[in-house]
Write a structure and sequence with these properties.
With about 300 residues, the chain is α+β, with helices and mostly antiparallel strands. Strand 6 and strand 7 form a beta hairpin. It is built from 10 helices and 9 strands. The radius of gyration is 25 Å and the shape is globular. The longest helix is centred in the C-terminal third of the chain and has 19 residues, at about 270-290. The strands form 3 sheets. A 4-stranded antiparallel β-sheet has the order 1-2-3-4, with no helix packed on it. It has a 3-stranded antiparallel β-sheet with strand order 5-6-7, with no helix packed on it. The chain folds into 3 domains: about 20-85; about 95-150, no CATH class; about 190-290, Serine Threonine Protein Phosphatase 5, Tetratricopeptide repeat. Helix 5 (about 180-185) runs antiparallel to helix 6, helix 6 runs parallel beside helix 8 and helix 7 packs antiparallel against helix 8.
């Protein structure tokens, strides 16, 4: 940012990791938003040049960004085939004193009057939580703090949105694209169904050479088996991935586990799924009976 009269820099450069395509001041002129080929948009303090938020991330380069007329939202457009609206409200002043107490309680540290860091009691966080339960806690800071302290699984996607995280994740899963499934997995890291869906999408999109997607799919489905050891789809998918990675012995164990699990209950499509798993088992058996032709992928 530069002094328009003297031509001198006013702040340090507003840095991205790749080309910057668009820059805009907020309507009030106190914030700046940038869009970059590094897959992010960023919001900066218009006076100091310091970042005000975490990067607003897409799965592809961000080529367009715009503040709303009231400066409360930002819209971004990306070559990942999505446009997104982000809440970026400017916090009102003055900041309540308990916000500093909350920051200290979360950090577990405070700086005393002598300038020395000292631990804080975990009971301070409980006290702040009880304070926020009061009926009067509907102002900006109280709403934000209530959202911040809520369990991730039960909170909304932002402090001022009515959409819950679980509902948002469900919508991303239904969308079924690689980008939407990645976002669902990021927001619901222990959701075994999301992990399996994403792993299968990566398998479908893998290309020669490299097999990077296959390795990532393997990691995802291992997590799914860890979080939900009775999920037959996770074990069946893991067997397919291990076979593709030329690990037939491990693949055989995984497909046998999947076959065991589908017999534990009755459900629609069970016969079809059993046939699919049996076909996978035969392919793995065939792989076991021939010489190794490739290294681990």
């Amino acid at each position: 940012m530069w002094d328009a009269r003297k031509g001198h820099p006013l702040t340090e450069p507003l840095k991205h990791d790749d080309s910057v395509f668009r820059v805009q001041f907020s309507p009030a002129g106190d914030r700046i938003v940038t869009a970059s080929a590094d897959g992010t948009a960023r919001i900066w303090d218009g006076l100091t040049g310091q970042p005000l938020t975490e990067p607003l991330r897409h799965q592809g380069l961000v080529h367009c960004v715009q503040f709303s007329p009231d400066g409360e939202r930002v819209v971004t457009a990306s070559n990942d085939q999505t446009a997104r609206v982000w809440e970026v409200p400017k916090p009102p002043l003055p900041i309540p004193s308990w916000v500093a107490d909350l920051a200290e309680a979360v950090a577990g540290q405070r700086v005393n009057h002598a300038g020395i860091s000292e631990p804080t009691s975990v009971t301070n966080l409980s006290k702040i939580g009880r304070r926020l339960e009061a009926p009067s806690g509907s102002d900006f800071w109280s709403r934000w703090a209530t959202w911040f302290l809520r369990e991730h699984a039960t909170r909304t996607i932002s402090p001022f949105s009515p959409v819950s995280v679980s509902e948002y994740v469900r919508r991303r899963i239904e969308e079924g694209t690689l980008t939407s499934l990645r976002e669902a997995a990021r927001l619901s890291r222990t959701n075994d169904q999301v992990l399996v869906r994403l792993a299968r999408e990566l398998m479908a999109q893998r290309s020669d050479p490299g097999f990077r997607n296959l390795r990532e799919a393997d990691l995802l489905v291992r997590r799914a088996c860890q979080f939900a050891p009775s999920n037959h789809a996770a074990w069946g998918t893991r067997a397919e991935i291990l076979a593709a990675r030329q690990k037939p012995h491990e693949a055989q164990l995984a497909i046998l586990r999947a076959l065991e699990l589908i017999e534990l209950e009755k459900f629609p499509g069970q016969e079809t799924l059993r046939s699919t798993y049996q076909a996978t088992r035969r392919q793995i058996h065939s792989q076991l009976n021939r010489p190794s032709e490739a290294k681990d992928k």
